[in-house]
Amino acid sequence: MTIFKLKVSKFEQCCNFELSWGQGKRIPAQLNYPKSLENSYIEWRQAYLNCYENLRGKVEKKGKFKAPLQDYQGKLGKAEADFLSKFNSWLRNEKLYDIRETITNATRDNKPSSDNHWVDILLTCDSPELTRLPWEVWEINTKLSKPGSINIRLARVPSNIRNSTVSPVKRKARVLAILGDDKGLNFEEDKQALRAFSKLTEVEFIGWEPGKDIAQLKQEIAEKISEPKGWDILFFAGHSNETPLTGGDLKIAPNSAIAIQDIAKPLQQARDRGLQFAIFNSCSGISIAESLINLGLPQVAVMREPIHNNVAQEFLVEFLNGLAEYKDVHEALIDACVFLKETKEFIYPSTYLIPSLFRHPQSELFRLEPFGIWHSIKSCLPTKKEAIYLTAFLSLSLIPPIQDLLLEPRLLLQAAYRQVIQGSQNSLPPPNQKSPILLVQIDDKSLEKDKVEFINERYMNYSYLGKIIDKLVERNARVIGVDYILDKDKQQPENSQKLQRTVSNAIDKGTWFIWGADETENYGVSPEIANLNQSSLGDINSYKWYVELPKNNCSETCPFPYVLALSHSLVNQNPQTNDLPQPQLSKTDFRDSIILERDKEINFLQKLIFSRTNNLLQWFQPIIDYSIPPKQAYQTISACELLGSCTPTPGIVRENLKSKIAIIAAGGYKQAGVDEAGEDNDFIPLPIAFWRGEKGWNDVFDGERSFTGGEAHAYTVHHLLNQHLVIAISNFIMVLIASVFGKIIVKILQNNPRRMGWELMIVGISSVVYILVSLQVYISFEVLVPIVFPFVVFGNYMRLGLGKS
């Protein structure tokens, strides 16, 4: 909203104009004040007074309004046309061209919107002659018309203001209606309009009644005005007069008046308690308005000239209707004047020229604010544009690839934050804190060193797997997971027999095996290699971003990492117990046996989160936390290092593996995959690249598929063993929260535009705090709070709600 200040001062027959705006911008102009304009005003005013019999400033006659005689209406019409013609002709003088052009340009610079379609002029006149002129109808670039495009509106500012104004109080608006002397008047229409207005406000009436003591009435009015609860609107109906020395008189009873200066203190107390607006539906109120603005009231609406009783009532009804539509007081006043001009011109000619709004220059225009729970909820509902953006982001929040796209950089940020607050953790933990997970990777180095030949150029040689298992059993491995589907025994019968003997010997020594499988397609280990009454299957289908949890108590399918973690927990919960299920040739599926053992709720369940796969985890799928350094989650060793055919990793080869889980998995060679070669190899997640350092980033930039399914399984086993299930709050939920929060913040900023700079800075600081808190919440409470989508939605609400502000 553009605001100009226009000061017009008169010295003898010369008028000085000065338009100011922005930071020190000003345009001066000087123009003679024509005597013909002054005479034309006097003629119009006399014709106006002759046209109306019963005015709220005249009490000589009683009775209802009678339509003026035709000759009086005709004279008034001619006088008005002549007066306005001279007035606008004077203001069209070329000496005011720069002032008019500057104001007009402002209407082109602003974009029309529901909340910002005005260019405001705050007018100050230093003489009564100038103040009485109808500046509101100055034809700068538009005549008085209804809002709908950029319009110019003019409010008046007294030349001397000693007191500052106040901001509105958040509450249901309270209205104090003072009904004065009703001699020759009828207040029923006023009362009816105010009672209808009480649907949105609290309205109280006070006024003279026959037999009431005048001194007591004055005391009651003063006490009511200064009531501690405070008022938002002060309304007066009755007779009033201009009295420059006392600030104006209000006739509150027959032959009795109260001066504004007599109630100055109660009015200041009312101002301090939130009084925002006063309307005097009475005659000749210029001095009243100037006195009240001087006391610090934000806005005052008055009639500059005498006004007929019926006109005052019709004006009030239209004005209150505008306020009830939550328009500001200036727009409501303009609408009421438009009503008088366009609808009542032939009944009440010239009356649209009478109302004026006086305004404290530091005030924001008052308007009613919806109040109550329903209105609070309604105010948080999105606008049409906001709804479009909100719907778009909510829809995007439900698309899994979009979620993955957002999750990856979020985990990268989390990894960087973890390194900052915990120091460099991309090193092996102390010996007593080493991960119990050993990932044995059959990588290109192992294939080359051990001269492994693939079967049909595609499938792993089973005899090589047997060698690895032999070495693990030699190191006392109790739980071994094989991340391969071994169903190609007919393609390599001799190798299969070797592997079967190796597995059988290992089982006899107490080793538990978990074989990779695709249980949805019934792919698994061949019966010629292993018996499922002696070993278990685990489904190796996984999603590299989320932890797979068991469903239906593993009756149909059970995730490979889960069976590994469960087996390890059972074997290691009490090494001396003889109550554990034993691999044996029987009719009982071995996996069913260990699931049954799990359900006995023995000690280890208190350390595992498996028993807590409740509704929360069904709604919020845990993520694989790649922000933990890989070396902290599991240990890796190449198969050739384990077998001794290449340089071994210090310490791991000689380590006793009795308390570890050994996972045999593909290590990135190009043939790895169940259905297609290479499908086991995936693009490296950004947080893993962060922990791998330069090599990891090179893999990212080169597009290398260097992250294996075995590594994802190892991470998942780590999370299950350590009860580390990070719950990701849905972007859908956070987008909704951000939209509500954004709407609330926008409302606060719109209601306090003069403090917007500070409040925007606070919003910026709060945003940084939100990011830091969300990063710490991830570590402290294992909850991932989205950042990108909520911030984008919040920013959109700020942009759409505040616009150029």
Structure class: alpha/beta
Radius of gyration: 42 Å
The average pLDDT value, as a whole number, equals 87
Distance, first to last CA: 8 Å
Q: What is the share of helical residues?
A: 40-55%
According to DSSP, the number of beta strands is 25
Number of helices: 27
- Report the major sheet: 6 strands, mixed
Strand order of the largest sheet: 7-6-8-12-13-14
Low-confidence stretches: 57-65, 142-148, 425-429, 601-615
What fraction strand? 15-25%
> Which shape, going by the Cα principal axes?
elongated
Overall description:
With 805 residues, the chain is an alpha/beta fold. α12 (384-397) packs antiparallel against α27, α13 packs parallel to α22 (686-692) and α15 (462-474) packs parallel to α16. The longest helix is centred in the last third of the chain and has 26 residues, at 756-781. The termini are close together.
Quick rundown:
This protein is an alpha/beta fold and about 800 residues long. It is about 40% helix and about 15% strand.
Question: How would you summarize the topology of this molecule?
Answer:
Layout: E1 2-11, E2 14-21, E3 25-32, H1 35-51, H2 70-91, H3 97-109, E4 118-125, H4 128-131, E5 151-156, E6 174-179, H5 188-197, E7 202-207, H6 214-225, E8 233-237, E9 239-241, E10 249-253, E11 256-259, H7 264-272, E12 277-281, H8 286-294, E13 299-303, H9 309-324, H10 329-342, E14 355-359, H11 373-379, H12 384-397, H13 400-422, E15 437-442, H14 444-449, H15 462-474, E16 479-482, H16 493-508, E17 512-517, E18 536-539, H17 560-573, H18 590-598, H19 615-619, E19 622-623, H20 630-633, E20 635-638, H21 639-643, E21 661-666, E22 681-682, H22 686-692, H23 694-702, E23 707-708, H24 709-721, E24 726-728, H25 731-751, H26 756-781, E25 783-784, H27 788-802
Parallel strand pairs: 1-4, 4-5, 6-7, 6-8, 8-12, 12-13, 15-20, 15-21, 16-17, 16-21, 17-18, 24-25
Antiparallel strand pairs: 1-2, 2-3, 9-10, 10-11, 13-14, 19-24, 22-23
Helix pairs in contact: 1-2, 5-9, 6-7, 9-10, 12-25, 12-27, 13-22, 15-16, 17-18, 17-24, 22-23, 25-27
